[in-house]
């Protein structure tokens, strides 16, 4: 099946009217987006509310557009490219939506939706415990009396609403602790204590997110678990932006 073209919308006003550092960051983002086979669509100010097939938007501060599909559209101002937490949040939203379009919308089935949700379980948990439980119940109770299109549309709306606010340290800690539980039979008491202590130090703001994240990935490489390996928590966006984890 031929895949639908997806786009990142960028205001034409910011393509050249910004400083060198911002242009450098924007160029990296555009290059990475194109490597993922996603198009870049320049949007003129007078056409911001036109119904375009875009799945994210970058504009001036205070600039925004309305999504034509009744879901929360990932949006970022140019200046926020220099703010790691906000950029990480935007990239996670954008590439989650892109992945959903490719893996679910392009070949819609209950199986595809269930598989997608399974891969995003811990990412959703990190963002919102409430949304994690709500989406889990939604997937567990799919009705044959409702059309798949409606089911998928509602799931997408719920998913993007769940990702609408960046995760805090408490949410990340909860997800990390749950995933650390997969190694309880493999690690020694000292190793488990180190894992828990590293996660708690992150929660307290003593160390960056990358410390527990990298430690968890290390143990996953030593004791592979197929379910965890395929979690999008570990790859919410392309590797070009992995440096952001050092700054969260």
Q: What would you say this structure looks like, in words?
A:
- The chain is an alpha/beta fold.
- The chain folds into three domains: 7-82, no CATH class; 101-162, no CATH class; 169-247, no CATH class.
- 50% of the residues lie in helices and 8% in strands.
- The protein has ten helices and four strands.
- The protein has helices at 20-35, 84-103, 110-119, 121-127, 129-140, 148-162, 169-180, 189-203, 210-222, 226-229, and strands at 7-11, 39-43, 54-59, 75-77.
- The protein has a four-stranded parallel sheet.
- β1, α1 and β2 form a beta-alpha-beta unit.
- α5 runs antiparallel to α6.
- The longest helix has 20 residues, at 84-103.
- It is globular and about 60 Å long.
- The mean pLDDT is 90.
TL;DR of this structure?
Residues 121-238 form the DUF1722 domain. The chain is of the alpha/beta class. The chain has helices spanning 20-35, 84-103, 110-119, 121-127, 129-140, 148-162, 169-180, 189-203, 210-222, 226-229, and strands spanning 7-11, 39-43, 54-59, 75-77.
Q: Helix- and strand-based class?
A: alpha/beta
Order of helices and strands: EHEEEHHHHHHHHH
Number of strands: 4
The shape, in one word, is: globular
Q: Spans of 5+ residues with little confidence (pLDDT < 50)?
A: none
Distance between the termini: 39 Å
Q: Provide the number of structural domains.
A: 3
- What's the tally of helices? 10
Question: How helical, in percent, are the residues?
Answer: 40-55%
InterPro entries: DUF1722 (IPR013560)
Pfam family, one: DUF1722
Protein name: DUF1722 domain-containing protein
Domain DUF1722: 121-238
């Amino acid at each position: 099946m031929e895949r639908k073209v997806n786009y990142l919308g960028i205001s034409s006003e910011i393509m050249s009217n910004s400083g060198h550092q911002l242009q450098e960051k924007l160029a990296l983002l555009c290059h990475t987006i194109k490597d993922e086979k996603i198009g870049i669509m320049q949007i003129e100010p007078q056409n911001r509310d036109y119904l375009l097939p875009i799945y994210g938007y970058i504009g001036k501060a205070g600039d925004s557009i309305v999504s034509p599909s009744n879901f929360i559209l990932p949006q970022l101002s140019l200046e926020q490219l220099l703010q790691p937490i906000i950029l990480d949040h935007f990239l996670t939203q954008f590439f989650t939506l892109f992945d959903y379009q490719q893996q679910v919308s392009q070949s819609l089935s209950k199986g595809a939706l269930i598989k997608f949700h399974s891969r995003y379980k811990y990412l959703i948990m990190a963002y919102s415990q409430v949304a994690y439980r709500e989406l889990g119940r939604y997937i567990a109770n799919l009705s044959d009396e409702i059309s798949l299109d409606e089911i998928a549309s509602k799931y997408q709306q719920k998913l993007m609403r769940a990702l609408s606010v960046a995760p805090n340290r408490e949410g990340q800690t909860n997800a990390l602790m749950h995933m650390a539980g997969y190694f309880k039979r493999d690690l020694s008491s000292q190793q488990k204590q180190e894992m828990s202590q590293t996660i708690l130090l992150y929660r307290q703001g003593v160390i960056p997110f990358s410390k527990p994240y990298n430690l968890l990935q290390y143990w996953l490489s030593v004791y592979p678990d197929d379910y965890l390996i395929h979690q999008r928590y570990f790859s919410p966006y392309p590797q070009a932006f992995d440096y952001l984890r050092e700054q969260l």
